[in-house]
Amino acid sequence: MEFILVHFGGNSMEREVRVRFAPSPTGPLHIGGVRTALYNYLFARHHGGKMILRIEDTDSQRFVPGAEKYIIDSLKWCGIEIDEGVGYGGPHAPYRQSERREIYLKYALELVQKGWAYYAFDTAEELDALRKEYEQRGETFSYNFKVRTTLKTSLSLSKEDVQKRIDDGEKWVIRFKMPENETVQMHDLIRGDVEINTSTLDDKVLYKSADALPTYHLANIVDDHLMEISHVIRGEEWLPSLPLHYLLYRAFGWEDTQPEFAHLPLLLKPTGGGKLSKRDGDKMGFPVFPLFWVSPTGETARGYREDGYFAEAFINMLALLGWNPGTEQEIFSMQQLIDAFSLERVSKAGARFQPDKAHWFNAQYMHTKSEEELAKLFMPQLKAHGIVTDMKTAGHVAYIMRERATLIGDLWDLTSYFFIAPEEYEPKQFRKYWNEQNRDILIKLRDVLEGISDFSASATEAIVHPWIESQGYSMGQVMNTLRLALVGAGKGPGMYDVTEQLGKEETLRRIDNLLKQNVI
Ligand code: GLU
Questions:
Q1: How many angstroms separate the alpha carbon of residue 227 from the centre of ligand 1?
Q2: pLDDT at res. 60
């Protein structure tokens, strides 16, 4: 285990790195969320620290069944390992906030008692009416220091009245008492120093009696504290919450162990403007989720895994969206990412998602796969097309064509003719090559091939090549006619790779099939 030096409001101390990925199970995990998890993981592993998975499910209105499992499965597929958390256990269990509900009330009450928070009894209707009233005057209602003593709160009502309302079962919330006109100075590891005047901020709800649950802010701070989190690495959308979080640490008296913060830049649309959304993916034909997703109501969304991407390629691509190694290197294994990663090299500016680049990364990984790896990936596709073959053949055929494939799913289209003889011929090629002269050549070539005993690519080439030259034929003419017979189209790898793979019997059979066709 390694300890790193962290700074807390002027103090420095050695601390074990403990980071957390804290998603809310409100739907499938967006690739922006996967990137947040990835950067947390890389940071933790780089420093020999721990990676925690906490599920923040206190917003019951936005809870989506199946989302938690989806998050866990996605992280597994990506190779992002969890040390403690939901599904893994650990010393701070439970890690699902809905199972920690009794913890939070105590802390909310502590803030009330210390004068950092207060009870508010306003109903949703009353607050709505206030909002409308302000709107009509062209103003925006904000629950803050200006109004808190004029509304139904423990700051305006008598102690007895407050107690009576609580005893009578009236619904209440606890709100944070945001200080007036104070400058909060904050530090972000990516953005540097940030400051804000508290008079621009409102009194956020921390706890609701209606469902006996805390809101995100309270639960988040309490859990980060109890789980001994050293660094909070999360999306930029949480930056506006940072002043409140700083003040909560102060209110609890936890400044000494307050984590350091790093807010990651947004993942932007391919066109640059705005956050990357599912709609962008639908429009431009790429997934924005790691795995295929079916919502409880049956809506579906594409996933990188099912679209035929390698997890390593997906992770490699994501890592470079917002972080750069400071060198020209683009291909990184997970271990190389762990070694090279630092928050200092995460950019402040949003990173534009490029679908072509996702393809490019996948192709790079495809090109380095071995025959054995390719066989495992390709076999299910072959089965789905009703092809019965062995791993060796599947691997070899995929290996020959890997340079032309981008996604795993491309392999079938690129290689199907190895398994199924042409039933039709591509019309253009047929018109171009199926004439009397080429038929005569093909008849002679058939005899040459029939006489060859070693059908390996090199041995066949060593006989056929000089034969074509000795006959004075054009190499292209002969090879393209043979290609028409064996592949049925103008595609495929070198012809000797095709003949070797098909074997003599099948090669001759396909030549005979073409010879049965009338010439044009
Ligand atoms: N539950 C929050 C989310 O869904 C976590 C924010 C944080 O990391 O503090 O993004």
A1: 15
A2: 86
The distance from CA 168 to its chain's CA centroid, rounded to whole angstroms, is 48
| pLDDT number for residue 520 | 78
What pLDDT does residue 184 have? 97
Q: What is the pLDDT of residue 273?
A: 86
Residue 430 host element (H or E)? helix 427-433
Q: Best mutation site among 30, 221, 238 for ligand 1, i.e. most ligand atoms within 8 A of its Cβ?
A: 238
Of residues 76, 208, 275, 278, which has the active-site annotation? Answer: 278
Please calculate the CA angle 309-302-88 and round it to the nearest 5 degrees: 75
Greatest Cα pair distance, the chain, in angstroms, is: 111
Question: Which ligand 1 atom is nearest residue 20's CA?
Answer: 8
CATH number at residue 476: 1.10.10.350
What pTM did the predictor assign? 0.90
CA of 331 relative to ligand 1 center, distance in Å: 29
pLDDT at position 6: 54
Q: Which atom of ligand 1 is nearest to the CA of 36?
A: 8
- Amino acid symbol at 440: D
Q: How many domains does one find in the chain?
A: 1
- Asked, for residue 516, whether it belongs to a domain, the answer is yes
Q: Which atom of ligand 1 is nearest to the CA of 237?
A: 10
Give me ligand 1 centre to Cα 463, in Å: 67
Instruction: Give pLDDT, residue 379.
Output: 96
If phi > 0 it is left, if psi is from -120 to 50 it is alpha, else beta; for residue 4 that is beta
177 found inside a domain: no
Classify residue 328 as left (phi > 0), alpha (psi -120 to 50) or beta: alpha
Distance 42 CA to ligand 1 centre (A): 18
Q: Is residue 502 part of a domain?
A: yes
List, for the chain, all residue ranges whose pLDDT scores fall below the cut of 50.
1, 8-11
Residue 152 designated active-site = no
| Ligand 1, atom 3: closest residue by C-alpha | 23
Q: Which residues line ligand 1 at a C-beta cut-off of 6 Å?
A: 22-24, 56, 220, 232, 234, 238
Range of the domain at 432: 421-520
CB-based burial, 165-184: b 16+ in 10 Å, e otherwise: beeeeeebbbbbbbbeeeeb
Q: Kindly report the three-state secondary structure assignment for every residue of 74-119.
A: HHHHHCCCCCEECCCECCCCCCEHHHHHHHHHHHHHHHHHCCCEEE
Atom 2 of ligand 1, nearest CA residue: 23
Query: 278, exposed or middle or buried, with CB in 10 Å at 0-12, 13-18, 19+?
Result: middle
Decide if 427 is inside a domain.
yes
Shortest-distance atom of ligand 1 to CA 216: 1
- Ligand 1 centre to CA of 24 (Å) is 7
DSSP letter, residue 112: H
